[in-house]
Amino acid sequence: MNHSNLKQFMIKMIPVGILITILSALYIIATVKHIERSTLRLKPVSLTAGCKTKLDKYQLKSGKYYISPYVTKQTGKQIRRAGYRPEDIRAIQRGCNIIDDLLGQDAKHISERWNSRRYIRGTHTSCDHCHQSIGDKQNATGQRLVGSLSLAASWVKADAYDRFTGLLLPYELRQMQCFINSSNGFKPNISDDIIRDITAYTRFLSVAVNLRTQHRYPEQGIDEIPVSATAKRGDDYVRGASLFRLKCANCHGARGFGTVINGRVIYPAVGGPNAFNRQSRNNFRFVSTILPGFICRNMPLGQEGTLSNQDCRDIAYFISNMPRPAGDKAGPLAALWQQMMMAILPRLVALVNQDEEAKPTSNLKTNENKTQVDQ
Ligand code: HEC
Ligand code: HEC
Predict the structure, then answer these.
(1) Which of 121, 211, 221, 280 shows a CA-CA span of 20 to 30 A to 179?
(2) Contact 189, 237 (CB under 8 A)
């Protein structure tokens, strides 16, 4: 090989060299990330206040057997279930933290939540805004509540047929639906740590309250409100708007944008860029029975159960008219339109509302007696 041949050869090899460098860099990054994740899995977990209370209540600890005090109290028997290893405990603890504090407001570093923020577009979502009491809502006597979106009850129905798509969805995919739509975010990989930890926690919950696999429990999902369960006055925007002002706006804001104080989400958005998107089952226009059910059961916070079925449908209908993200399936044009609506509509509404804000709300006619109480 003479000198010029060698030179030509070297020039030809430049792209190969670049490729090898890029691949090696990627390999090194992947390895470093992998090591980071492994170290994190070994680290003791600092629990959120809610998770500390929850997991203490169920006396989660490692050992050969696990006996849930809740089950002992309910059945009068000490039922032994398979025990947990220290690494299982940490997975359950991390899963609980994720449901309670998805965006890591209480975490020292977002890596404690497996960098959950990259899966969520907005700045408000936490799973337990809808799956309340960290997915395990009970009344004062420890009874699990009907239609409380229980994650324990949903775990035992893992791998169920989805009633809207007709597909057999594994538990991981059902979580993903909530990441994509209810949390208006992105789909984590099916084997991502975030999904695995959530699964570990929900599985633990189902053991802690002694649910049997493949059984349908009333606390799964929402007890939905169809039109037939109302006063059949039709879903009404004006009634909904006035009820929202009276009953919800003080926490969720007049435009549903939620309340954030010092960077902490106090009350989540129900409309606007940080809310669930149009393809969420919470969106009345997509599934009209779920949001009314949620509102009637769980809102207004502190006065749950005070609204009538008709009220809840009216309010849900009103909320569905707030601008919100389009969701992935709608395509880029719809997404652009929604973004525009979110940027422009609030300003228009503010303009229109300027003189309306001065009017007392009682001018708006509501036909439900209940709404008179606050006036
Ligand atoms: C805005 C409200 C909302 C948020 C936020 C939310 N979810 Fe959901 N979730 C729902 C609704 C509504 C359903 C569907 C219930 C149905 O189809 O009957 C659901 C269903 C599920 C299911 C399937 C349960 C079942 O019983 O079929 C899982 C698992 C789940 N969510 C996990 C999560 C996780 C994990 C997060 C956080 C990343 C989350 N959800 C955030 C409202 C929400
Ligand atoms: C006292 C404050 C308060 C009032 C009043 C209130 N909410 Fe909420 N709402 C909350 C809080 C806090 C959450 C988060 C869940 C939790 O912590 O229990 C929430 C959650 C929600 C959610 C699900 C969260 C999400 O991400 O979409 C909806 C929907 C909702 N509220 C609707 C309503 C409606 C409709 C009303 C009026 C009928 C209402 N709320 C009144 C405080 C309030």
Answers:
(1) 211
(2) no
User: Which parts of the chain have pLDDT scores under 70?
Assistant: 1, 346, 354-375
Rounded distance between C-alpha atoms, residue 212 and residue 214, angstroms: 6
Summarised one tens digit per residue, pLDDT across range 206-247 is 999 999 998 999 999 998 998 888 888 888 999 999 999 999
pLDDT at 350: 76
How many A from CA of 154 to the centre of ligand 1?
9
CB 49 within 8 A of CB 97: no
Of ligand 2's listed atoms, the one at least distance from the Cα of 124 is 26
Long-range contacts formed by 358-366: CB under 8 A, 24+ apart: 361/242, 361/245, 361/246, 364/238, 364/241, 364/242, 364/245, 365/238, 365/242, 366/239, 366/242, 366/243, 366/246
Among the bound ligands, name the one nearest to the CA of residue 162.
1
pLDDT number for residue 375: 26
pLDDT of residue 355: 54
pLDDT at 25: 97
Ligand 2 pocket by Cβ (under 6 Å)? 129-130, 132, 247-248, 250-252, 267-268, 270, 275-276, 294-295, 299-302, 315
The CB-based long-range contact list for 348-354 (8 Å cut-off, 24+ gap) reads: 349/255, 353/254
Give the distance (Å) from ligand 2 centre to CA of residue 269. Answer: 8
* Assigned CATH topology for domain 47-208: Cytochrome Bc1 Complex; Chain D, domain 2 (1.10.760)
Q: Which residues line ligand 1 (CB under 6 A)?
A: 102, 125, 127, 129-131, 149, 154, 174-175, 178-179, 182-183, 198, 220-222, 276, 281-282, 290
Ligand having the closest approach to the CA of 294 = 2
